[in-house]
Amino acid sequence: MAFLFNSFLDWKAYSVAHSMELYDVVLEYEQDHKGQSAEEIMKGILRAYQVMCDAVKTGLNEEMKSRSGMINDGAKKVFQSPITVLSPEFQKLVARALAAKEVNSCMGRIVAAPTAGASGILPGTLVTLQEIHQLPDSVMVNALLLSAGIALIIQEKASLAGAVGGCQAETGSAAAMAAGAITFALGGTVDQQFNAVGITIQCMLGLVCDPVAGLVEVPCVVRNASAAAIANASAQMALAGLDPVIPVDQCVEAMGEIGQSMETRYKETALGGLAATRTGQEIAKKVLIQDIDILPDED
Amino acid sequence: MAKQSSIFNMIGPVMIGPSSSHTAGVVRIGRVAIRLLGVIPEQAVITFYNSFARTYEGHGSDRAILAGLMDFKTDDKRIKESLQLAKELPLHYIFKSVGNASTLHPNTIKLELKKNDKQIEVIGESLGGGVINIAEVDGFVTNFSASLHSLLIMAEDVKGSIAFIANVISNDQCNIANMSVSRKGKNKMACLAIEMDSGIKPTTLMYLKALHWVNEVIYVPDIDL
Ligand code: SF4
């Protein structure tokens, strides 16, 4: 029986006991689960990665304007900006995460990883990582397999849905997946990979889901860029040997606990936070359909 | 094991944005509905309820449902242009919005579809993550997810009919994952919604259709293929 993704501790123990890489444990799980061959699974992951790369390109090359008007070619603006705040690589990272996410908001093709709301984070980080370090696709596939294992555990112990756990569950989880993937791809140890996940979660804890007018646009798009930056910062720390002190499993549990106690107005209901601001409500009034029939009370 | 997700739900699905419940799930409801009708409709009255009533335009659910009705898949880039493509077909559509339908799921769509002498009414719910529930078909409570192979059978509610049908299906080596029965009307019609792990043989379908107490058999194979 293949390993069930219930904790990071067990994942590591299983991989040591069976002399398997972490990503091989994920591969075995999926073979067992879906009855697909390892080749088919890796092909599927590679295809997903290609869709991510395409989304980045599309977002940087085609017009990205959403029907609400809130998305207006932000990625291109960043990519072409003459002002470089840190380095050209950082500028590209931010632009790419925005690009893929803007494609999502504008009804283009993306990979929900783990959700559509967070669909810019893995594309932004992985495309940039591959470019800077000249990594082969095979490494990217293994990195994505690893990140899928991370997501499975977060889903099991906490949640991946904004409506259940707030935005920490969506963009937070995607950033954690990305941080683990980066740390793996750059040769980090298993502990360092898990530390990168734990650090990222520590950085993203508590983030509420408060989309303006209920649309997956503001603040979702900019949060994809900031989450991509946090994933890189976390990988940098983990690879240097920084110890997050709280073990990764307990970080995920904290995320679950915070998600549970979060009020419903911060869970995708568009009733709190940015959605409830004056401007947020004005926008909602403008973009939401007002002409609706209201049924008479049933009793 | 079956409880845990596939890794292709973690890295995936590949889909058209912006959200799995507003686009992917809605496309899938449309894809089920045309299989129930048996053809791409010429006319569609589409009602969005509750949360969908206000947000369907902003989230592109109007385009998603038309795309599904034209048999586009959830990752088809043409979804974005489906309003225009429907006009060209032509598939005449009307959108309606109804709030506070308290007995319905927050993300509910009702489809009234027509082509020539064929027509059908389908109520679908988008549950999140692209998962759907087909709640009603022509007034019968059906509650199936269409994630597997599904079978709808409208039959006279004669004694032993359900057990008989279940038997026929298992004789075809089909594993029944789920079955629900709903009854309606004075003449005691029953509707069986059956979800099976694998596809059913054409001969088995023909046999079921030939039974004199069976009025209609609709087979919906895996809609994502
Ligand atoms: S704010 Fe909500 S809808 Fe937007 S990305 Fe975060 S969880 Fe998703």
Summarize, please.
The complex is a heterodimer of chains A (299) and B (225). Chain A is an all-alpha fold and 299 residues long. Chain A has helices at 8-17, 22-34, 38-61, 74-80, 88-105, 121-133, 137-157, 162-165, 167-185, 190-204, 220-239, 248-261, 278-287, and strands spanning 109-111, 293-294.
Layout: helices, strands, pairs:
The complex is a heterodimer of chains A (299) and B (225).
Chain A (H helix, E strand, L loop, with lengths): L7 H10 L4 H13 L3 H24 L12 H7 L7 H18 L3 E3 L9 H13 L3 H21 L4 H4 L1 H19 L4 H15 L15 H20 L8 H14 L16 H10 L5 E2 L5
Helix pairs in contact in A: 2-7, 3-5, 3-6, 3-7, 4-5, 5-6, 5-11, 6-9, 6-11, 7-9, 9-10, 9-11, 10-11, 10-12
Chain B lengths: L13 E3 L3 H18 L5 E7 H6 L5 H9 L12 H7 L3 E8 L7 E9 L2 E11 L2 E7 L2 E5 L4 E8 L4 H11 L4 E9 L4 E8 L5 H9 L3 E7 L5
Radius of gyration of chain A from the CA trace? 19 Å
Work out the strand percent of chain B: 35-45%
- Give the oligomeric state of the chains in this entry, treating copies of one chain as homo and distinct chains as hetero: heterodimer
Largest interface: A-B, 63 and 44 residues
Element order, helices and strands of chain A? HHHHHEHHHHHHHHE
Bound small molecules, deduplicated: iron/sulfur cluster
What is the percentage of strand-forming residues of chain A? under 5%
Helix segment tally of chain A: 13
**Mean of residue pLDDT of chain A?**
95
* CATH architecture group name of the largest domain in chain B: 2-Layer Sandwich
| Shape type of chain A | globular
What does this structure look like?
The complex is a heterodimer of chains A (299) and B (225). Chain A is an all-alpha fold. Chain A has one domain: Orthogonal Bundle (2-methylcitrate dehydratase PrpD). In chain A, 63% of the residues lie in helices and 2% in strands. In chain A, helix 2 crosses helix 7, helix 4 runs antiparallel to helix 5 and helix 5 crosses helix 11. Chain A is globular, with a radius of gyration of 19 Å. Chain A starts with 7 loop residues before the first helix and ends in a 5-residue tail after the last strand. The model of chain A has no long low-confidence stretch (mean pLDDT 95). In chain B, the strands form 2 sheets. In chain B, strands 3-2-4-5-6-7 form a 6-stranded mixed β-sheet. Chain B has a 4-stranded antiparallel β-sheet with strand order 9-10-8-11, with helices on both faces. In chain B, helix 1 packs parallel to helix 3. The longest helix of chain B has 18 residues. Chain B contains 6 helices and 11 strands. Chain B is globular and about 50 Å long. With 225 residues, chain B is α+β, with helices and mostly antiparallel strands. Chain B folds into 2 domains: 138 residues, 2-Layer Sandwich (60s Ribosomal Protein L30, Chain: A); 78 residues, Alpha-Beta Plaits. In chain B, strand 9 and strand 10 form a beta hairpin. At the A-B interface, helix 2, helix 3, helix 5, strand 1 and helix 7 of A face strand 1, helix 2 and strand 3 of B. Iron/sulfur cluster binds next to helix 9 and helix 11 of chain A.
